[in-house]
Amino acid sequence: MSYSRRLIFYTSFLFLLNIGGCQNTTKTGGETESIIEISPEDLKVGEESIVRVTITSPKGGIVVGGGFRFPFYMKPWNGLIKGVTEDKESNSLVAISRSDGGKAEAVNVLTNPQWDILSDLKVLITETPLPEGETLTIQYGTDDQKVVVGRKQMSLFLEVELDENGDGEYKKLAPPLLPIAESEPTKLYLVAPSHVLMGVDFDVVAYGEDKHSNVCEEYVGRLDISPLDDSGGGDHMSYQMVPWDQNVDLDRNSFSYSFDQKGIYYIKAVDHEFGISDVSNPIIVSDSKPDKNLVWGEIHVHSQLSDGRGELQDVYRDGYARGLDFIAITDHGFGRSDRGSLEERINEICREADRFNRPGEFVAVPAGETHYLPVMHMNMYFDEANPEKMLSLANSIDKITKDLRKNWKEMTQDQLAEEVVTYWDVFKNEIYKDHTLVFPHHTMWLGIKPFLDTERTRVIEVYSVHGTSEIRNQKNTPKALQMKPGRMKGDQDQKISVRELLNEGMKLGFVGGSDNHEGQAGYNAITGVYSRGLNRTSIIRGIYDQECYATSSNRTLIEVEPDGENYRCLVAGDGELDKIEIIHNGEPVYEPENISGRICMFNWTPEPQEGYFYVKVLLSEGTEAAWSSPIWLE
Ligand SMILES: [Zn+2]
Ligand SMILES: [Zn+2]
């Protein structure tokens, strides 16, 4: 892989002229030519290196006080910093130098502890201007402490902005490219459908992941495939992985498989050469087609249309290769304002969703996130890529929350509660019942009860990369699943747990969404939906009907069947089971004993027969979990 290293960019700029007390904006003629070079020419993830970005001063030079900015949202350090430094206060990894021997300083090298990255690096020219043709070099890493790239390059390495006049007006420059290649796979994954028919072939997706959790597009291992046990009659066979075809929009490795007996089975794959193996998720084999199929997808992931990594197409590709059935990319505010007008961004979201939507195989759900209210984050989902409808909803939210955004801090909970009526009235007018979904996430990080409407909030995101919002006191929650400590700071009364909402009578289903900002769809959490078909309408409808549940990115099966006052429960873990709990009216009330292996069946009778219960499963040594949606007792 090799790309041209020299990128010429042009920027036209504006001068602000102050004449006789009256400000005029005058566009001056001419274009500024500048050059960004980046070394090395390409990188592999996991490789230690020193990265240098060299920028040639444009025509007219750069004045003292002018300089460059690497905006926060592009996360210039993201992927570079990982695994390198524990010392987040240290700026020692950034060195600035000028070819003319002049001075420049790095300012505003913010560390954002919430994101584990250095962000918003600004480099100012000091003492003497940087003459035309001279260069400024920003070096990431030192001989002693090299940087390691974590994420494979998708569309962009970093973004650079220039302020040549020192007036604080930054203009975006063409970004430098640094191709970053995946490394060899260190993990193997098999993803099978949860429900299949006896004796009928189905597709199993296989993919390798490198140690920085990139899907390995180039992986060409040979897999020995077999059933985990032979009772279902699955084949012993081998499958040759092939690299992605770069000429098609979506590609992944999959092989055909079948079982000729009813039951719950798993498939095993081993790559002896790479020394990696995996056991698939559980597969229920039956002799009749259920009217609803359990399908799995990502409902919460960001692209660099807002503050994530990778363009929309990169995120769709990633999720497809990971075997997801559906994806909703939920960019903040339907994208950042520097990516075009709201209308243009919504058009792009709809266009890309339609481009990657393959009903019956892979569903791209048009979506977005609103957090106009700093106290509550909500995602929105649409069953059609209709830019007019989406724009109308986005504009209404904007209008209605304008004052609230200014005033909410001074408002009491009661005042907020009053305002929420207006807020939800917008949704009432713009939301088309089961055609549009709006629901909150990480309510134990940012959540406030008045913004939850009993009637229109159908589900709630119970788990994401930030941790679980299931309960307030997380002492007994395995560490891997807890809400990250940084998210728990501040006024705890401003937050609300999912269990508290249920205890107050809100009838909510559960969904899981990654909130991944690294372009990895389905990496941290997924949602299982019982869906009539694999298309937008059926998936939105399934979630609306609360026929869905949440997992931390595993395909554990949880089935609960009423039998009079008794409930028959089946749990088939996507991994070894550690613990199964029944949570009844907010309290853990029952645990089946002596669970071992992957499958557990048990009976349970609620006492009293009122309120709600759900099944919570911990597996893979407490690193993974699944939560059934609550079942409401009459
Ligand atoms: Zn959010
Ligand atoms: Zn988000």
By DSSP, the count of extended strands is 47
User: Which cofactor or ligand species appear?
Assistant: zinc ion
The best one-word shape is globular
Largest sheet: 10 strands, mixed
Question: What would you report as the Rg, rounded to the nearest angstrom?
Answer: 26 Å
The number of domains: 4
Structural class: mainly beta
Low-pLDDT residue spans: 1-31, 73-91, 110-118
Strand content: 35-45%
> So what's the oligomer here?
single chain
CATH architecture of the largest domain: Alpha-Beta Barrel
- Helical element count? 6
Query: Distance N terminus to C terminus?
Result: 62 Å
Could you tell me the CATH topology label of the largest domain: TIM Barrel
CATH superfamily of the largest domain: Metal-dependent hydrolases
Percentage of residues in helical conformation: 10-25%
The whole-number mean of residue pLDDT values reads 84
Name the CATH class of the largest domain. Alpha Beta
Quick take:
By secondary structure, the chain is mainly beta.
Verbal overview:
The protein has 4 domains: 22-172, Immunoglobulin-like (Sandwich); 187-290, Immunoglobulins (Immunoglobulin-like), CATH 2.60.40; 295-553, TIM Barrel (Alpha-Beta Barrel), CATH 3.20.20; 556-634, Immunoglobulins (Immunoglobulin-like, Sandwich), CATH 2.60.40. Residues 1-31, 73-91 and 110-118 have low confidence and may be disordered. The radius of gyration is 26 Å and the shape is globular. Strands 29, 30, 31, 38, 39, 42, 43, 45, 46 and 47 form a 10-stranded mixed sheet that branches. It has a 5-stranded antiparallel sheet with strand order 1-4-7-14-9, with no helix packed on it. It has a 5-stranded antiparallel sheet with strand order 10-13-8-16-17, with no helix packed on it. It has 6 helices and 47 strands. A hairpin with a 4-residue loop joins strand 45 (611-619) and strand 46. The longest helix is centred in the middle third of the chain and has 21 residues, at 387-407. Helix 2 (342-356) crosses helix 3 (387-407) and helix 3 (387-407) packs antiparallel against helix 4 (413-430). By secondary structure, the chain is mainly β. It binds zinc ion (2 copies). One zinc ion is lined by residues 369, 371, 377, 441.
